[in-house]
Protein backbone atom coordinates (compact mmCIF):
# COMPACT_ATOMS: atom_id res chain seq x y z
CA UNK A 1 0.00 0.00 0.00
CA UNK A 2 1.09 3.56 -0.66
CA UNK A 3 2.88 4.53 2.59
CA UNK A 4 1.25 7.95 2.56
CA UNK A 5 -2.15 6.25 2.94
CA UNK A 6 -1.20 4.68 6.26
CA UNK A 7 -2.26 6.99 9.03
CA UNK A 8 -0.80 7.25 12.50
CA UNK A 9 -3.84 6.72 14.71
CA UNK A 10 -1.99 7.82 17.83
CA UNK A 11 -1.16 11.14 16.20
CA UNK A 12 -4.76 11.51 15.03
CA UNK A 13 -6.11 11.05 18.53
CA UNK A 14 -3.77 13.80 19.73
CA UNK A 15 -4.65 16.18 16.89
CA UNK A 16 -7.10 19.08 16.93
CA UNK A 17 -9.70 17.17 14.91
CA UNK A 18 -9.69 14.03 17.03
CA UNK A 19 -13.42 14.28 17.70
CA UNK A 20 -14.19 13.81 13.98
CA UNK A 21 -15.17 10.64 12.20
CA UNK A 22 -13.32 9.93 9.00
CA UNK A 23 -16.51 10.43 7.08
CA UNK A 24 -17.11 13.86 8.53
CA UNK A 25 -14.49 15.01 6.07
CA UNK A 26 -14.33 12.15 3.59
CA UNK A 27 -17.26 10.92 1.49
CA UNK A 28 -19.40 8.37 3.32
CA UNK A 29 -19.10 6.04 0.35
CA UNK A 30 -15.55 5.38 1.54
CA UNK A 31 -17.22 2.96 3.95
CA UNK A 32 -17.32 0.35 1.16
CA UNK A 33 -14.10 -1.29 0.05
CA UNK A 34 -12.64 -1.27 -2.55
CA UNK A 35 -13.43 2.43 -2.76
CA UNK A 36 -14.91 3.82 -5.92
CA UNK A 37 -12.08 5.42 -7.84
CA UNK A 38 -13.88 8.70 -8.57
CA UNK A 39 -14.20 9.46 -4.86
CA UNK A 40 -10.61 10.55 -4.92
CA UNK A 41 -11.42 13.38 -7.27
CA UNK A 42 -13.99 14.92 -4.97
CA UNK A 43 -12.73 18.11 -3.36
CA UNK A 44 -12.21 18.06 0.40
CA UNK A 45 -12.95 20.95 2.69
CA UNK A 46 -10.11 23.37 3.26
CA UNK A 47 -9.28 24.90 6.62
CA UNK A 48 -11.03 28.08 5.60
CA UNK A 49 -14.20 26.25 4.53
CA UNK A 50 -14.80 25.28 8.14
CA UNK A 51 -12.86 27.89 10.12
CA UNK A 52 -13.36 30.96 7.96
CA UNK A 53 -15.62 33.55 9.54
CA UNK A 54 -16.23 31.38 12.60
CA UNK A 55 -16.04 33.57 15.71
CA UNK A 56 -15.07 30.68 17.97
CA UNK A 57 -11.77 30.36 16.10
CA UNK A 58 -11.19 34.10 15.68
CA UNK A 59 -8.06 34.10 17.81
CA UNK A 60 -6.27 31.99 15.22
CA UNK A 61 -6.91 34.64 12.53
CA UNK A 62 -7.45 32.13 9.73
CA UNK A 63 -8.38 34.83 7.21
CA UNK A 64 -5.24 36.85 7.84
CA UNK A 65 -3.12 33.70 7.66
CA UNK A 66 -4.64 32.88 4.30
CA UNK A 67 -3.89 36.37 3.04
CA UNK A 68 -0.28 36.06 4.15
CA UNK A 69 0.03 32.55 2.77
CA UNK A 70 -1.10 33.75 -0.64
CA UNK A 71 1.95 36.00 -0.76
CA UNK A 72 4.32 33.12 -0.01
CA UNK A 73 6.68 31.49 -2.52
CA UNK A 74 4.81 28.21 -2.35
CA UNK A 75 1.52 29.76 -3.39
CA UNK A 76 3.14 31.96 -5.99
CA UNK A 77 4.75 28.99 -7.72
CA UNK A 78 2.06 26.33 -7.34
CA UNK A 79 -1.16 28.29 -6.81
CA UNK A 80 -4.20 26.56 -5.30
CA UNK A 81 -2.49 23.20 -5.67
CA UNK A 82 -0.25 24.12 -2.76
CA UNK A 83 -2.93 24.27 -0.07
CA UNK A 84 -2.77 24.54 3.70
CA UNK A 85 -2.79 20.74 4.00
CA UNK A 86 0.63 20.54 2.34
CA UNK A 87 2.04 21.69 5.66
CA UNK A 88 -0.85 21.07 8.04
CA UNK A 89 -2.10 17.54 8.10
CA UNK A 90 -5.80 17.82 8.88
CA UNK A 91 -5.46 14.42 10.54
CA UNK A 92 -2.74 15.17 13.02
CA UNK A 93 -2.16 18.91 13.33
CA UNK A 94 -1.64 20.26 16.85
CA UNK A 95 -1.25 23.99 17.53
CA UNK A 96 2.15 23.59 19.17
CA UNK A 97 3.67 27.07 19.21
CA UNK A 98 0.57 28.34 20.95
CA UNK A 99 0.43 25.67 23.61
CA UNK A 100 3.79 24.06 24.24
CA UNK A 101 5.95 25.30 27.11
CA UNK A 102 9.19 24.08 25.61
CA UNK A 103 11.06 25.96 22.90
CA UNK A 104 12.75 22.85 21.65
CA UNK A 105 9.44 21.05 21.19
CA UNK A 106 8.01 23.96 19.26
CA UNK A 107 11.05 24.14 17.02
CA UNK A 108 11.03 20.41 16.44
CA UNK A 109 7.33 20.24 15.59
CA UNK A 110 7.40 23.29 13.33
CA UNK A 111 10.52 22.27 11.45
CA UNK A 112 9.16 18.79 10.81
CA UNK A 113 6.26 20.42 8.98
CA UNK A 114 8.75 21.79 6.45
CA UNK A 115 11.16 18.87 6.50
CA UNK A 116 8.40 16.32 5.85
CA UNK A 117 8.50 17.68 2.31
CA UNK A 118 11.87 19.42 1.89
CA UNK A 119 13.76 16.39 3.16
CA UNK A 120 11.50 13.83 1.49
CA UNK A 121 12.55 13.28 -2.08
CA UNK A 122 9.31 11.57 -3.21
CA UNK A 123 6.95 14.06 -1.66
CA UNK A 124 8.94 17.03 -2.85
CA UNK A 125 9.15 15.69 -6.37
CA UNK A 126 5.43 15.00 -6.42
CA UNK A 127 4.87 18.70 -5.84
CA UNK A 128 7.67 20.20 -7.89
CA UNK A 129 8.59 17.62 -10.49
CA UNK A 130 12.29 17.99 -9.69
CA UNK A 131 14.66 16.77 -7.01
CA UNK A 132 14.86 18.62 -3.70
CA UNK A 133 17.97 20.73 -3.07
CA UNK A 134 19.93 19.33 -0.11
CA UNK A 135 19.22 21.54 2.90
CA UNK A 136 22.49 20.66 4.61
CA UNK A 137 24.42 21.90 1.60
CA UNK A 138 22.34 25.03 1.08
CA UNK A 139 22.85 26.04 4.70
CA UNK A 140 26.50 25.12 5.00
CA UNK A 141 27.38 28.77 5.63
CA UNK A 142 25.64 28.47 9.00
CA UNK A 143 27.99 27.22 11.74
CA UNK A 144 26.70 24.65 14.23
CA UNK A 145 23.94 23.93 11.73
CA UNK A 146 22.46 21.06 13.68
CA UNK A 147 22.36 23.13 16.86
CA UNK A 148 20.69 26.00 15.03
CA UNK A 149 18.06 23.75 13.46
CA UNK A 150 17.21 22.42 16.90
CA UNK A 151 16.98 25.90 18.42
CA UNK A 152 15.42 28.06 15.72
CA UNK A 153 12.66 27.41 13.24
CA UNK A 154 12.98 27.53 9.48
CA UNK A 155 10.37 30.29 9.46
CA UNK A 156 12.57 32.49 11.67
CA UNK A 157 14.84 33.08 8.70
CA UNK A 158 12.41 32.45 5.88
CA UNK A 159 9.41 34.61 6.72
CA UNK A 160 8.67 38.22 7.28
CA UNK A 161 7.67 38.66 10.92
CA UNK A 162 4.06 39.79 11.40
CA UNK A 163 3.33 41.02 14.89
CA UNK A 164 -0.38 40.45 14.50
CA UNK A 165 0.08 36.74 13.81
CA UNK A 166 1.33 34.03 16.11
CA UNK A 167 3.01 32.32 13.18
CA UNK A 168 4.17 34.25 10.13
CA UNK A 169 2.97 32.54 6.97
CA UNK A 170 4.58 34.61 4.29
CA UNK A 171 7.52 32.46 3.24
CA UNK A 172 9.80 34.65 1.19
CA UNK A 173 11.99 33.60 -1.70
CA UNK A 174 15.48 32.54 -0.78
CA UNK A 175 16.99 35.90 -1.73
CA UNK A 176 15.11 37.43 1.16
CA UNK A 177 16.05 34.84 3.77
CA UNK A 178 18.07 36.21 6.69
CA UNK A 179 21.71 35.38 6.62
CA UNK A 180 22.82 38.00 9.12
CA UNK A 181 23.95 36.54 12.42
CA UNK A 182 23.22 39.81 14.18
CA UNK A 183 19.52 39.60 13.44
CA UNK A 184 19.33 36.98 16.18
CA UNK A 185 22.57 37.42 18.08
CA UNK A 186 21.92 40.93 19.32
CA UNK A 187 20.11 42.81 22.04
CA UNK A 188 17.12 43.42 19.78
CA UNK A 189 17.11 39.92 18.39
CA UNK A 190 14.32 39.22 15.96
CA UNK A 191 13.71 36.04 17.93
CA UNK A 192 12.05 38.19 20.57
CA UNK A 193 9.40 39.11 18.03
CA UNK A 194 8.98 35.58 16.78
CA UNK A 195 9.97 32.42 18.58
CA UNK A 196 10.37 33.89 22.07
CA UNK A 197 7.20 35.96 22.01
CA UNK A 198 4.84 33.17 22.94
CA UNK A 199 2.98 33.75 26.18
CA UNK A 200 3.07 30.08 26.96
CA UNK A 201 6.87 30.21 27.08
CA UNK A 202 6.91 33.37 29.12
CA UNK A 203 4.55 32.05 31.75
CA UNK A 204 7.17 29.59 32.85
CA UNK A 205 9.45 32.32 34.03
CA UNK A 206 6.69 34.40 35.60
CA UNK A 207 8.74 37.54 36.14
CA UNK A 208 7.99 39.02 32.74
CA UNK A 209 10.31 40.93 30.50
CA UNK A 210 14.01 40.28 31.08
CA UNK A 211 13.70 36.72 32.09
CA UNK A 212 11.21 35.95 29.38
CA UNK A 213 13.76 36.35 26.65
CA UNK A 214 15.22 33.01 27.40
CA UNK A 215 13.95 29.82 28.78
CA UNK A 216 16.02 27.12 30.28
CA UNK A 217 17.94 25.55 27.47
CA UNK A 218 18.41 28.51 25.19
CA UNK A 219 21.22 30.95 25.46
CA UNK A 220 21.60 33.07 22.38
CA UNK A 221 24.79 35.09 22.48
CA UNK A 222 24.11 38.80 22.62
CA UNK A 223 20.45 38.72 23.59
CA UNK A 224 20.69 38.94 27.36
CA UNK A 225 21.42 42.64 27.76
CA UNK A 226 19.38 44.92 29.90
CA UNK A 227 19.27 48.66 29.16
CA UNK A 228 19.65 49.51 32.85
CA UNK A 229 22.89 47.59 33.24
CA UNK A 230 24.16 49.08 30.02
CA UNK A 231 23.52 52.63 31.23
CA UNK A 232 25.09 51.86 34.60
CA UNK A 233 28.20 50.42 32.98
CA UNK A 234 28.61 53.44 30.72
CA UNK A 235 28.31 55.75 33.74
CA UNK A 236 30.91 53.81 35.72
CA UNK A 237 33.20 53.78 32.74
CA UNK A 238 32.92 57.55 32.28
CA UNK A 239 33.46 58.17 36.00
CA UNK A 240 36.66 56.11 35.99
CA UNK A 241 37.87 57.80 32.85
CA UNK A 242 37.32 61.32 34.17
CA UNK A 243 38.99 60.38 37.45
CA UNK A 244 42.06 59.26 35.54
CA UNK A 245 42.11 62.34 33.35
CA UNK A 246 41.87 64.71 36.32
CA UNK A 247 44.57 62.81 38.19
CA UNK A 248 46.94 62.93 35.20
CA UNK A 249 46.38 66.65 34.78
CA UNK A 250 47.43 67.20 38.39
CA UNK A 251 50.47 65.00 37.88
CA UNK A 252 51.53 67.00 34.85
CA UNK A 253 51.01 70.36 36.58
CA UNK A 254 52.92 69.25 39.68
CA UNK A 255 55.80 67.97 37.59
CA UNK A 256 56.22 71.28 35.80
CA UNK A 257 56.56 73.19 39.06
CA UNK B 1 67.76 55.60 37.82
CA UNK B 2 70.39 52.95 37.46
CA UNK B 3 71.87 53.96 40.76
CA UNK B 4 68.74 53.31 42.81
CA UNK B 5 67.94 50.10 44.58
CA UNK B 6 66.31 47.23 42.69
CA UNK B 7 64.28 44.27 43.86
CA UNK B 8 63.53 41.17 41.78
CA UNK B 9 59.76 41.39 42.29
CA UNK B 10 58.42 39.45 39.33
CA UNK B 11 59.93 35.98 38.80
CA UNK B 12 59.84 34.45 35.33
CA UNK B 13 56.76 32.25 35.87
CA UNK B 14 54.83 35.26 37.09
CA UNK B 15 55.83 37.32 34.07
CA UNK B 16 54.84 34.50 31.73
CA UNK B 17 51.48 34.23 33.47
CA UNK B 18 51.01 37.97 33.36
CA UNK B 19 51.80 38.20 29.65
CA UNK B 20 49.40 35.41 28.64
CA UNK B 21 46.78 36.72 31.03
CA UNK B 22 47.02 40.29 29.74
CA UNK B 23 46.88 39.14 26.12
CA UNK B 24 43.99 36.77 26.80
CA UNK B 25 41.92 39.20 28.82
CA UNK B 26 42.45 42.01 26.33
CA UNK B 27 41.18 39.70 23.57
CA UNK B 28 38.25 38.65 25.72
CA UNK B 29 37.25 42.25 26.40
CA UNK B 30 37.41 43.28 22.75
CA UNK B 31 35.61 40.20 21.40
CA UNK B 32 33.15 40.26 24.31
CA UNK B 33 32.11 43.84 23.62
CA UNK B 34 31.86 43.14 19.92
CA UNK B 35 29.56 40.15 20.50
CA UNK B 36 27.28 42.25 22.68
CA UNK B 37 27.08 44.98 20.09
CA UNK B 38 26.75 42.47 17.25
CA UNK B 39 29.62 44.02 15.41
CA UNK B 40 30.18 42.28 12.15
CA UNK B 41 32.28 42.98 9.07
CA UNK B 42 32.96 41.03 5.95
CA UNK B 43 36.47 40.14 7.15
CA UNK B 44 35.76 39.33 10.78
CA UNK B 45 32.43 37.53 10.93
CA UNK B 46 30.47 36.93 14.10
CA UNK B 47 31.60 33.32 14.00
CA UNK B 48 35.29 34.29 14.05
CA UNK B 49 34.67 36.58 17.00
CA UNK B 50 32.91 33.81 18.95
CA UNK B 51 35.76 31.40 18.24
CA UNK B 52 38.40 33.95 19.25
CA UNK B 53 36.54 34.61 22.50
CA UNK B 54 36.40 30.88 23.27
CA UNK B 55 40.09 30.34 22.54
CA UNK B 56 41.15 33.38 24.60
CA UNK B 57 38.95 32.13 27.44
CA UNK B 58 40.71 28.79 27.49
CA UNK B 59 44.08 30.55 27.40
CA UNK B 60 43.14 32.66 30.42
CA UNK B 61 41.86 29.55 32.21
CA UNK B 62 45.14 27.69 31.71
CA UNK B 63 47.24 30.68 32.71
CA UNK B 64 45.05 31.16 35.76
CA UNK B 65 46.00 27.65 36.88
CA UNK B 66 49.66 28.74 36.61
CA UNK B 67 48.95 31.86 38.68
CA UNK B 68 47.04 29.90 41.31
CA UNK B 69 49.55 27.08 41.78
CA UNK B 70 52.47 29.52 41.47
CA UNK B 71 51.15 31.53 44.36
CA UNK B 72 50.55 28.38 46.41
CA UNK B 73 54.00 26.86 45.99
CA UNK B 74 56.22 29.96 45.84
CA UNK B 75 56.59 32.84 48.27
CA UNK B 76 54.69 35.19 45.98
CA UNK B 77 51.35 34.26 47.53
CA UNK B 78 52.20 35.92 50.81
CA UNK B 79 52.20 39.37 49.18
CA UNK B 80 48.46 38.98 48.73
CA UNK B 81 47.65 38.41 52.40
CA UNK B 82 45.83 41.31 54.03
CA UNK B 83 45.69 42.33 57.66
CA UNK B 84 42.25 42.68 59.16
CA UNK B 85 43.56 45.21 61.65
CA UNK B 86 43.41 48.72 60.25
CA UNK B 87 41.92 47.39 57.03
CA UNK B 88 39.86 50.46 56.15
CA UNK B 89 42.30 52.88 57.74
CA UNK B 90 45.12 51.62 55.55
CA UNK B 91 42.99 51.78 52.42
CA UNK B 92 42.02 55.38 53.22
CA UNK B 93 45.64 56.26 53.93
CA UNK B 94 46.73 54.99 50.53
CA UNK B 95 43.73 56.62 48.84
CA UNK B 96 44.54 59.97 50.44
CA UNK B 97 48.10 59.61 49.27
CA UNK B 98 47.02 59.09 45.65
CA UNK B 99 44.52 61.95 45.80
CA UNK B 100 46.46 64.49 47.83
CA UNK B 101 49.70 63.36 49.42
CA UNK B 102 51.63 62.58 46.27
CA UNK B 103 51.01 66.08 44.97
CA UNK B 104 52.26 67.63 48.20
CA UNK B 105 55.59 65.96 48.42
CA UNK B 106 54.55 63.39 51.00
CA UNK B 107 56.26 60.03 51.18
CA UNK B 108 54.31 56.94 50.23
CA UNK B 109 52.65 55.63 53.42
CA UNK B 110 53.47 52.04 52.50
CA UNK B 111 56.90 52.02 50.90
CA UNK B 112 57.60 48.85 48.95
CA UNK B 113 60.30 46.48 50.10
CA UNK B 114 61.25 42.81 50.06
CA UNK B 115 58.42 42.30 52.53
CA UNK B 116 55.81 44.42 50.83
CA UNK B 117 55.21 44.31 47.08
CA UNK B 118 51.82 45.98 46.96
CA UNK B 119 50.27 48.90 48.77
CA UNK B 120 46.88 48.19 50.41
CA UNK B 121 44.84 49.48 47.47
CA UNK B 122 46.79 47.36 45.01
CA UNK B 123 46.44 44.39 47.29
CA UNK B 124 42.68 44.59 47.66
CA UNK B 125 42.12 45.14 43.95
CA UNK B 126 44.46 42.30 42.95
CA UNK B 127 42.80 40.05 45.52
CA UNK B 128 39.29 40.84 44.31
CA UNK B 129 40.20 40.48 40.67
CA UNK B 130 42.33 37.37 40.87
CA UNK B 131 40.44 35.44 43.55
CA UNK B 132 36.89 36.61 42.85
CA UNK B 133 36.16 38.17 39.46
CA UNK B 134 38.47 36.10 37.25
CA UNK B 135 37.48 32.72 38.75
CA UNK B 136 33.79 33.62 38.38
CA UNK B 137 34.28 34.65 34.77
CA UNK B 138 36.13 31.41 34.07
CA UNK B 139 33.50 29.21 35.73
CA UNK B 140 30.52 30.96 34.14
CA UNK B 141 32.31 31.00 30.81
CA UNK B 142 32.87 27.26 30.90
CA UNK B 143 29.24 26.80 31.89
CA UNK B 144 28.08 28.81 28.89
CA UNK B 145 30.20 26.66 26.62
CA UNK B 146 28.26 23.66 27.91
CA UNK B 147 24.80 25.05 28.71
CA UNK B 148 23.44 21.60 29.50
CA UNK B 149 25.37 21.57 32.80
CA UNK B 150 23.61 24.69 34.08
CA UNK B 151 20.73 24.40 36.52
CA UNK B 152 17.55 25.11 34.58
CA UNK B 153 15.72 27.39 36.93
CA UNK B 154 16.64 29.39 39.99
CA UNK B 155 14.21 31.68 41.76
CA UNK B 156 11.94 31.43 38.76
CA UNK B 157 14.61 32.76 36.45
CA UNK B 158 16.43 30.90 33.75
CA UNK B 159 19.76 29.57 34.99
CA UNK B 160 21.43 30.25 31.68
CA UNK B 161 20.22 33.82 31.73
CA UNK B 162 21.60 34.45 35.21
CA UNK B 163 24.89 32.85 34.25
CA UNK B 164 25.16 35.07 31.20
CA UNK B 165 24.43 38.21 33.23
CA UNK B 166 26.97 37.24 35.89
CA UNK B 167 29.54 36.49 33.22
CA UNK B 168 29.20 39.89 31.54
CA UNK B 169 29.02 41.79 34.82
CA UNK B 170 32.26 40.27 36.07
CA UNK B 171 33.80 40.81 32.65
CA UNK B 172 32.86 44.45 32.92
CA UNK B 173 34.41 44.77 36.39
CA UNK B 174 37.62 43.24 35.09
CA UNK B 175 37.66 45.79 32.26
CA UNK B 176 37.30 48.60 34.78
CA UNK B 177 40.06 47.05 36.89
CA UNK B 178 42.28 46.89 33.83
CA UNK B 179 41.83 50.58 33.03
CA UNK B 180 42.71 51.59 36.59
CA UNK B 181 45.50 49.00 36.73
CA UNK B 182 47.08 50.39 33.58
CA UNK B 183 46.88 53.92 34.89
CA UNK B 184 48.12 53.25 38.41
CA UNK B 185 51.05 51.30 36.99
CA UNK B 186 52.19 54.56 35.42
CA UNK B 187 52.53 56.10 38.89
CA UNK B 188 56.06 54.94 39.53
CA UNK B 189 59.59 56.15 39.56
CA UNK B 190 58.95 57.30 36.02
CA UNK B 191 55.73 56.72 34.03
CA UNK B 192 57.19 53.76 32.15
CA UNK B 193 59.18 52.25 34.98
CA UNK B 194 56.59 49.77 36.23
CA UNK B 195 55.84 48.54 32.73
CA UNK B 196 59.51 47.77 32.27
CA UNK B 197 59.45 45.99 35.62
CA UNK B 198 56.71 43.53 34.67
CA UNK B 199 58.79 42.62 31.60
CA UNK B 200 62.27 42.47 33.14
CA UNK B 201 61.25 41.40 36.64
CA UNK B 202 63.24 44.14 38.39
CA UNK B 203 61.42 46.84 40.30
CA UNK B 204 63.12 50.13 41.12
CA UNK B 205 62.44 51.38 44.61
C1 LIG C 1 47.95 45.24 28.78
C2 LIG C 1 47.67 44.84 29.93
C3 LIG C 1 48.47 44.96 31.24
C4 LIG C 1 49.58 45.69 31.56
C5 LIG C 1 50.39 46.62 30.67
C6 LIG C 1 49.88 45.41 32.94
C7 LIG C 1 50.93 45.97 33.68
C8 LIG C 1 51.31 45.56 34.93
C9 LIG C 1 52.42 46.12 35.67
C10 LIG C 1 53.27 47.26 35.19
C11 LIG C 1 52.49 45.44 36.84
C12 LIG C 1 53.50 45.67 37.96
C13 LIG C 1 53.22 46.89 38.74
C14 LIG C 1 52.25 46.68 39.82
O1 LIG C 1 52.36 45.71 40.60
O2 LIG C 1 51.33 47.51 39.91
C15 LIG C 1 51.45 44.45 36.87
C16 LIG C 1 51.20 43.57 37.91
C17 LIG C 1 50.07 42.79 38.02
N1 LIG C 1 49.05 42.73 37.09
FE1 LIG C 1 49.02 43.61 35.28
N2 LIG C 1 48.95 44.53 33.43
C18 LIG C 1 48.07 44.22 32.42
C19 LIG C 1 46.99 43.41 32.49
C20 LIG C 1 46.59 42.72 33.63
C21 LIG C 1 45.37 41.98 33.75
C22 LIG C 1 44.34 41.81 32.64
C23 LIG C 1 45.33 41.46 35.01
C24 LIG C 1 44.28 40.60 35.71
C25 LIG C 1 43.08 40.41 35.32
C26 LIG C 1 46.55 41.88 35.69
C27 LIG C 1 46.88 41.56 36.99
C28 LIG C 1 48.07 41.89 37.60
C29 LIG C 1 48.49 41.40 38.90
C30 LIG C 1 47.68 40.43 39.80
C31 LIG C 1 49.75 41.94 39.14
C32 LIG C 1 50.64 41.68 40.37
C33 LIG C 1 51.41 40.42 40.06
C34 LIG C 1 52.36 40.05 41.22
O3 LIG C 1 53.37 40.73 41.32
O4 LIG C 1 52.04 39.08 41.91
N3 LIG C 1 47.28 42.65 34.83
N4 LIG C 1 50.74 44.55 35.70
Give a structural overview.
The complex is a heterodimer of chains A (257) and B (205). By secondary structure, chain A is mainly alpha-helical. Chain A folds into two domains: 210 residues, no CATH class; 32 residues. In chain A, 44% of the residues lie in helices and 0% in strands. Chain A is built from 14 helices and no strands. The termini of chain A are far apart. About 6% of the residues of chain A have low confidence. The radius of gyration of chain B is 19 Å and the shape is elongated. Chain B contains six helices and four strands; from the N terminus they run βααααββααβ. In chain B, the strands form two sheets. In chain B, strands 1-4 form a two-stranded antiparallel ribbon. Chain B has a single domain, classed as Fumarate Reductase Cytochrome B subunit (Up-down Bundle), CATH 1.20.950.20. The mean pLDDT of chain B is 86. Chain B is mainly alpha-helical and 205 residues long. The interface between A and B is medium-sized, with 36 and 34 residues. The complex binds protoporphyrin IX containing FE. The site of protoporphyrin IX containing FE has 23 residues of chain B, from α1, α4, α5 and α6.
Describe the protein's topology.
The complex is a heterodimer of chains A (257) and B (205).
Chain A: H1 9-14, H2 22-25, H3 47-51, H4 62-69, H5 73-78, H6 96-99, H7 103-118, H8 121-128, H9 135-138, H10 145-151, H11 154-158, H12 199-205, H13 209-212, H14 227-256
Chain B: E1 6-8, H1 12-36, H2 46-73, H3 87-99, H4 120-145, E2 153-154, E3 157-158, H5 159-184, H6 193-200, E4 202-204
Antiparallel strand pairs in B: 1-4, 2-3
Bound molecules: protoporphyrin IX containing FE (HEM).
Amino acid sequence: MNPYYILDTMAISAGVHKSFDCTDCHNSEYKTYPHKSDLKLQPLSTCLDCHGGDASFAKYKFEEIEKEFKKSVHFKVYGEYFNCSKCHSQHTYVATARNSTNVLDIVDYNNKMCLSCHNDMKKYKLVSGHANPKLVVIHDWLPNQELHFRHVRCIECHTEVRDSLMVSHNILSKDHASKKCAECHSANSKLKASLYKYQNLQKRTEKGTISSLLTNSSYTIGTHQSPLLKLLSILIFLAVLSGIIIHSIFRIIKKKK
Amino acid sequence: MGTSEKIYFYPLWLRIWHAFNALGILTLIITGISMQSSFETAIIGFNTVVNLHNIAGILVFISYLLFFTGNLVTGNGKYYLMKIKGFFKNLTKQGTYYAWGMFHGQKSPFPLSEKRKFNPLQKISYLLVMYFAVPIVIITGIALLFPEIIIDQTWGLSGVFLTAILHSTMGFLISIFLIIHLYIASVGKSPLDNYKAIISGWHHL
